[in-house]
């Protein structure tokens, strides 16, 4: 599917800490300091009426999105909904022996996407990613690669735009000469990593603009 942003469109970003990026959760218009803020800054600089909302929450897995989906997604009535979720479903397997099966991951992801599509949202799915900075992280691929395959299948099933972030960011790390230049711990993005992801997202939806910096520097579009 080709998702294109119209003027006066409401764009909602959902996910975990990579999307959250330190936003103030007491302020419904806070965007954090990551890729969402960069995208919003560029859209605001373009002078459109587009509104950007961020409801990423650090530590979330897909099961957590399902629990809060009504309040934090459907009730906000987004025109475009961008979702990136899955790295914590993998990470908890290795640091806590808390396993989310691929089947459960797909089931919960499919439920929330079905609800969003029924509500009329156009979907953008961003692959979960890993840019290994430690040798031990390479073993995570046996778990994460299955989740990436699920996201690709869901993108096809739901006619969603797909951002292949895993390959994108690993290639960026190769070009930078260091994985930590893109993701300091293999997961959490550096400013360079966020800029790379933001640029790719904007290109995907046809909203490429010269970088304007975080939205806080140009003013968030509020109702």
Largest sheet: 5 strands, parallel
Shape: globular
Q: What level of helicity do the residues show?
A: 40-55%
- Taken in chain order, the helices and strands follow as EHHEHEHHEHEHH
Please tally the helical runs, counting DSSP H or I stretches of 4 or more residues: 8
Strand content: 5-15%
Query: Which residue ranges are poorly predicted, with pLDDT under 50 across at least 5 consecutive positions?
Result: 210-223
- Lateral arrangement of strands in the main beta sheet: 2-1-3-4-5
Mean pLDDT: 92
Question: What is the terminal-to-terminal distance?
Answer: 29 Å
Class by alpha and beta content: alpha/beta
By DSSP, the count of extended strands is: 5
Question: What Rg, in angstroms, do the CA atoms define?
Answer: 16 Å
């Amino acid at each position: 599917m080709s998702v294109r942003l119209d003027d006066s469109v409401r764009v909602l970003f959902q996910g975990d800490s990579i999307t959250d990026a330190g936003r103030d959760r007491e302020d419904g218009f806070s965007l954090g300091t990551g890729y969402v803020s960069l995208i919003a800054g560029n859209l605001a600089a373009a002078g459109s009426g587009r509104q950007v909302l961020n409801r990423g929450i650090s530590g979330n897995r897909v099961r957590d999105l399902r629990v809060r989906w009504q309040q934090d997604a459907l009730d906000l009535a987004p025109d475009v909904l961008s979702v990136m979720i899955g790295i914590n479903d993998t990470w908890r397997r290795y640091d806590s022996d808390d396993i989310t099966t691929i089947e459960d991951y797909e089931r919960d992801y499919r439920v929330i996407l079905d609800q969003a599509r029924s509500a009329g949202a156009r979907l953008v799915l961003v692959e979960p990613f890993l840019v290994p900075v430690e040798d031990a992280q390479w073993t995570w691929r046996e778990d994460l690669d299955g989740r990436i395959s699920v996201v690709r299948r869901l993108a096809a099933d739901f006619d969603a735009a797909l951002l292949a972030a895993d390959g994108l960011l690993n290639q960026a790390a190769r070009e930078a000469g260091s994985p930590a230049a893109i993701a300091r711990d293999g997961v959490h993005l550096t400013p360079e990593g966020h800029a790379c992801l933001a640029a790719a997202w904007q290109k995907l939806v046809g909203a490429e603009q010269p970088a304007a910096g975080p939205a806080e520097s140009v003013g968030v579009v509020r109702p």
